[in-house]
Design goal:
It is globular and about 60 Å long. It has seven helices and no strands.
Length: 151
């Protein structure tokens, strides 16, 4: 069963149970997928890869928003809790990103492979690493490449 089918089943169950939090989270994912499909230049298929990428992007945005609401203290506590639920609930469908140690190993291998030691070549290293197909956090890769090249 694909992610799309799982989400459809989950949505039906959530609606029957009158679970607004799950219903809203699933509907938001479907909205995000529709936006991705409508984006100029989209030529791919609506498959598990699209859902994984969309969910990962959405979860990342919600984690950032949750942190901002938590900084607001009591005023943002309710919204932060809502976003925390969404992140936890949707994370089971999001690809698991490589940790810092694994990412650092990948970056070091790429730098050695490319023979790069100039910080001006950071973009080349970034592009090479991201094309390798690993599930990597671009921000983490950027930071590690900067550290390794002394930028």
């Amino acid at each position: 069963m694909g992610i799309r089918d799982e989400l459809a089943t989950e949505l039906k169950e959530a609606m029957k149970a009158r679970d607004k939090a799950r219903t809203n989270a699933i509907r938001q994912v479907e909205t995000e997928v529709a936006v991705a499909k409508a984006a100029p230049g989209f030529k791919g298929e609506v498959d598990d890869d699209l859902y994984k990428a969309t969910i990962a992007s959405y979860v990342k945005k919600m984690e950032k928003a949750r942190a901002e609401y938590e900084q607001m203290g009591e005023r943002g506590a309710e919204q932060a809790a809502k976003l925390e639920f969404e992140v936890e609930y949707l994370s089971r469908w999001a690809p698991q990103l490589a940790g810092e140690d694994e990412t650092r190993q990948i970056v070091k291998a790429a730098i050695a492979e490319l023979g790069v030691d100039d910080p001006k070549m950071m973009g080349r290293v970034m592009g090479h690493v991201m094309k390798l197909g690993h599930e990597l956090d671009g921000g983490l890769v950027n930071r590690i490449v900067r550290e390794e090249l002394g930028a």
